[in-house]
Amino acid sequence: MNRIILQLIAVGICFAIGQALQCYKCDIGIGDICLTSKTTCGSGEHCFNGVGKAAGFLDIKMKGCLKEAECNKTEQVNFPSSGNTTVYAMTKTCCDTDLCNAAPGLPGTPGLSLAFAAISAVLMANFVVY
User: Fold this and answer.
1) Which residues of the chain have pLDDT under 70?
2) Other CB atoms within 10 Å distance of the CB of residue 71
3) What single DSSP character describes residue 84?
4) Residue-level pLDDT at 110
5) Model-wide pTM > 0.85
6) Minimal CA–CA distance to 94: which of 108, 121, 73, 76?
7) How far is CA 90 from CA 7, 15, 30, 45, 74, in A?
């Protein structure tokens, strides 16, 4: 009888671990740069993408896990925390499937910038050789 109970507990633990949500995580990113890793969310959490603007023009990004009650809200981030100075507003939108808060491709290198860098490197190499 004890053996059956232990087997049921083991199966239950495996099932609970298999249900954990995987998300991309980025603590803070600026512009197109948001270095991501993968993380496992806790119970009652969803994946989220956070997008905000600092000083009215600088894009700020975040990714990770967030409690469901905090999803799809805009949060004002103040600094210093005791003052009324708003640094940025962050809107966090959630999703609930594995890795649904997609990681960016190559951070900070859109195709046009990458092509410009390659052409510049070739031109500089020509000047150095002569």
Assistant:
1) 1-19, 79-86, 103-130
2) 16
3) -
4) 47
5) no
6) 73
7) 46, 35, 13, 18, 5
Q: Which residue has 């956070």 as its token pair?
A: 50
CB contact at 8 A, 88 and 62 = no
Backbone angles phi, psi at 101, to 5 degrees: -90, 65
| E strands, 3-119, in order | 22-30, 37-40, 45-54, 58-67, 73-78, 86-95
Q: Which two tokens stand for residue 9?
A: 């507990």
Domains and CATH numbers, the chain: 21-121 (2.10.60.10)
H or E stretch at 117? helix 111-129
Task: Assess contact for 89 and 53: CB atoms under 8 A.
Answer: yes
